[in-house]
Each structure stands twice: as C-alpha cells, then as structure tokens.
Amino acid sequence: LKNPRPQERSLTKNIRMKAVQSNLFVAFFLLACFASLTSASDPSPLQDFCVAINDPSSAVFVNGKFCKDPKLATAEDFFFSGLNIPKNTSNPSGSTVTAVNVDRILGLNTLGISLAQIDFAPYGINPPHLHPRATEILVVLEGSLYVGFVTSNPENRLISKVLNPGDAFVFPVGLIHFQFNVGGKSAGALAALSSQNPGAAIIANAVFGSEPSINADVLAKAFQVDKNVINYLQKQFWWDNNN
C-alpha cells in the first residue's frame, strides 16, 4: 500500500481533531448540566452534622460553614417543641406560619430540610407566595384546605385541589402557591421543605409593600390598571403571617 500523501494525512488529522473537539464539547456540556442539577438544592453535607454556631472562636470550619465541635453537640441542637399547640391566627390573613428552620433548630445546618406549622382561622388564607429555595410537601391535619399552585410562563396554569385531613400536596420549588381554609372551623397543616432555609416571598407584600415602594407608574403599566388603584394598594398594610 502507498503511504498517504501529505494532503491526505493533513485531512485525516483535521477530521480526528474535530471529532475530539466535538466529543470534548459534549462531555463539557453534560458536565455543566449535571453541575447545574446538583447545585439546585442545598449541598450535601460532608459529615454527620454541622450544628450552626455564631462564635467562630469555639467552632470548627467544616464544609464551608462554622460549626460547633461535634463532640459538644447535644440533643437540644436537634430539638424543637410546641408544634402541637395551635398558634394565634387573629390577623388580617387569618393564618400563622411557624417556620422550623435552621434558625430554630441549629442542627438542621447543611441537612437540606425544614418544617413549617400552618394554622388557619375559619376562612383564613396563607396568601399566594413562593419559596425560592425549596419544594414543599404539605399534609392537612385538621379542617379542609383549598390549595394550588400556578405553573410558569407561558402556560400559567392553575393546579388546585381541596384537601382533607390526611391528604398531602406538593408545591414545586419557586412556583406561586397558596392555601385557603374553606371550612367553617379552624384548620391546621404541616409542611416539609427541601431546604434548611427555604425563604418565603409573599406576592402582594413584595409587589405593593416593598421598601422603598416600586414606582406606581411601573405597577400601573404592569397590571394594566389605573395608577390610583396602585396608590391605594400601596397604602394598605400588608401583613406578614410568618412567625
């Protein structure tokens, strides 16, 4: 067989180089996708636990956070009581959310989970809100709740259902959702969230109760209403039902 001519060798080399570059591009693309998925929730801990502590002088630096020395951890670092006690719901929303997050159980630090107790007065509402860092699963303990969430653009579809004691419902991360007590008596629920600090943004409070206020012209244009309507809404007191 004849040896390939220089032009043929160069062409073959270029084809091989392009194939390698293509494979590398695919590999980096898949790696980037995987990295974005793995960073979509709280990072996995690299130790049994990391009890949060405010005094670095008596802490160890583990997994990017100051933590209490594990040898000094106690049961109190992982404990919270009082979820059996209904909370006061005498407020404009007729509901109170008691968050049991890393601020209340220091041992939740790095564990990627938290809890919330939600109490409702008759016809009380946990108004439309979202959790920027967590998916929520809610179980009704008492009463009947009309719950739902709205999908993202462009569909903006409402997915809703009436729940009774023992029923559970999932609210995907970042989507606007609500719970409304449709019964004539008090109601209660517990919610688990996939973050030690899920955050909560109540839509009306954020839009009409921000400090400083959003320019009324902006909101009038966005909501396609008269500016006087926006001025009226911005003058209201927007209650935060998070305890």
From TrEMBL:
Where oxalate binds, per the record, is at 126, 131, 136
> Locate the Cupin type-1 domain: which residues?
81-231
* Places the protein is found: Secreted, Extracellular space, Apoplast
Does Cell cycle appear among the keywords? no
Which GO molecular function entries does the Swiss-Prot or TrEMBL record give? manganese ion binding
Instruction: Print the keywords alphabetically.
Output: Apoplast, Disulfide bond, Glycoprotein, Manganese, Metal-binding, Secreted, Signal
The family database entries (PROSITE patterns) matched by this protein are listed as:
GERMIN
- Residues that, per the record, bind Mn(2+): 129, 131, 136, 177
Disulfide bridge positions per record? 50-67
The secretion signal range is: 1-40
Q: What GO cellular component term, any one, is given?
A: apoplast
Q: Which CDD domains match?
A: cupin_OxOx (cd02241)
Which InterPro entries does the UniProt entry name for this protein? Cupin_1, Germin, Germin_Mn-BS, RmlC-like_jellyroll, RmlC_Cupin_sf
Known role: May play a role in plant defense. Probably has no oxalate oxidase activity even if the active site is conserved.
Spell out the family assignment given in the record's similarity comment: Belongs to the germin family.
Query: Entry's PANTHER family?
Result: GERMIN-LIKE PROTEIN SUBFAMILY 3 MEMBER 3
Entry protein name: Germin-like protein
Question: What species is this protein from?
Answer: Turnera subulata
